Amino acid sequence: MITYDGITKRFGQELAVDALSMRVARGEAVALLGPNGSGKTTTLKMAAGLIQPSAGSVTVGQPPLAPWAPAARRAISFLPQRVAFPDALTGREVVDFYRQLRGIPAARSQAVLKFASLNGAGERAVGTYSGGMVQRLGLAVAMLPESDVLLLDEPTAALDPDGLAAFYAVIEARQAAGRTILFTSHHVGDVERLADRFVVLVHGRVVAELTQAELRDQLAERGVMRVRLSAVPDGLLDKVRVIAPESAIDKGELTVRGAASLRPRVLDVVREHGAEVRGLTAEDGRLDALYRDLVARSEAS
């Protein structure tokens, strides 16, 4: 549904996106991650038809169309990173304005206002809204059409827990309906919950691309098990390090870093040494730490 083929974008002397190639399939949800200035927003705007590439091509829909073609625009719903609406209009007037632009039935206004939890504020002027309420209003506008392609730039920025829960529910419903979603986010929870695949951009280039299954494997490899022992037998750490070289013992607690598959063998060694286990915790690696490592590696190379 979205194909980038050797996309490059320059703004004067600044290279924002560098020879990027990527495909987002129908019904897939893909997250773009990267530090500020990595080209995420520019990449999204090129799929929305708001920016034309300096080189390469981008197509949207089936059959593939240039994103600025009228038929492609009808298939796209775009939420910018920063939304702004006239202060004097009410939330309902803003929604109705965009609804009429897209020829959508009037009943849809109430549905999206309810989704955005703006029922009580829909008749108030936008100028009285908090930043989080303006963000919710932007989401309401983006959700007006039943678009085949959703392009969302930092959609959960400034959302409170209720707004976040409502947003997740709507996006998961769109995923179940086979919609295609490309979004940017700095929130790890968004990626872990919504994305089928995530792509890391640094300086406009793809430096890593992982499916959910690959992500789970990577996080499992970076996991940690902590075993609290009543006493530490002589030679225990040496034997454990044969299995998991990065293991350590401090104040009676054995810390084992590495894949979850190593843990049963480590516990066998603990039992063989007659150590009494007083407590045990285990966790997979964290996505935010993996992401920072991927960015650091790319910038060091």
Present the secondary structure layout:
Elements: E1 2-11, E2 14-24, E3 29-33, H1 40-47, E4 55-60, H2 70-74, E5 76-79, H3 91-101, H4 107-115, H5 131-142, E6 149-153, H6 161-176, E7 180-184, H7 188-194, E8 197-202, E9 205-211, H8 212-221, E10 224-229, H9 236-243, E11 248-250, E12 253-257, H10 263-272, E13 277-283, H11 287-300
Parallel strand pairs: 3-7, 3-8, 5-6, 6-7
Antiparallel strand pairs: 1-2, 1-4, 8-9, 10-12, 10-13, 11-12
Helix pairs in contact: 3-4, 4-5, 9-10
Question: What features would you describe in this structure?
Answer:
The chain has 301 residues and is α/β, with parallel strands linked by helices. The protein is 37% helix and 27% strand. The protein has 11 helices and 13 strands. The chain has helices at residues 40-47, 70-74, 91-101, 107-115, 131-142, 161-176, 188-194, 212-221, 236-243, 263-272, 287-300, and strands at residues 2-11, 14-24, 29-33, 55-60, 76-79, 149-153, 180-184, 197-202, 205-211, 224-229, 248-250, 253-257, 277-283. The strands form 3 sheets. The chain has a 6-stranded mixed β-sheet, sandwiched between helices. A 4-stranded antiparallel β-sheet has the order 11-12-10-13, covered by helices on one side. The model has no long low-confidence stretch (mean pLDDT 88).
